[in-house]
Amino acid sequence: MKKKVLAALTAAMVMTMSSMTVFAASPTVGTTEAAVATQSVTTTVEATAAPADYAAETKASEGFSVEAVSATTVQSAAVAVQNALLNDIASIGTKLGNSSLVAAATDASKRVTASVLSVVEVNASSAVKDANGNYIVTLNIPSIAAGDAIVVLHYNGSAWEVIAPSSVSAGSVTFATASLSPISVVKLSVNGVTAAPKTGETAPYAAMIFVIGVAGTAICGKKCFA
To answer: What SS3 state is found at 214?
Structure first.
């Protein structure tokens, strides 16, 4: 009798385990690392938005669905933007085929800004993989403009990997990925560094303002006494 009960319990456990969905480990917030020694460009990661805002602004192509991620996942993606993208601008520029990014990497007068346009959970509702074993995903995000330098980050269960999009157009980005999980869409832009005015350059103006102020006070004093 005991053997029958044990066999029944074992069978039930096997069936339960076989029907369970295996979930990838959730991203954790890593530590910001230093840039490569050959890089001299200034880099900045813009402030991220709330997970719900990203989910509301991001639409997926047919066969895929989009859900909001956790706040921790957004923070993890922001750190990954710095470590995986901004810390080696030349490599990312080469991967994207973007000569402006490659040139900016060693230019101390330039700044590369990373804008996190989306961090969402992408799921396959009815989509299937292509002959190469990849999902072909198009995400529609209004803030993408034609010609933008867009890069995709995908959390594969252990780390954020960099994906170069196959196409970027106004309002959308298309890319291939072997698995889904959290996806982050990032825009990289190159601008000049705005330098603060030197003390020597501001001094003459300060002196002029002082002289004008003294003269004005003197004139007002004369009128008052008159």
So the answer is: helix
